Amino acid sequence: MWDKYGSRVPWSLDLSLKDKADEVGVDFDVFIEQLSLNRSDTEIADELAVPEKVVQHLRQHFNRFGIHSIVGQD
Known about the structure:
Blueprint: E1 11-12, H1 17-23, H2 28-36, H3 41-48, H4 52-65, E2 70-71
Antiparallel strand pairs: 1-2
């Protein structure tokens, strides 16, 4: 039976969104708040004083993986 159902503990493929935000000097809580307010990438970049490309990358990560990049199966 164990051969058929080996361990499927979740594991991470990438840094979490918070880790990525910290790495580029973005306040994670402010970023998430700006997303919740449906602000554009330009507006968020202005608010956080970072290039728009940084916001685009973080938004893409959020849309694709959510807050954490955990992959696996129970």
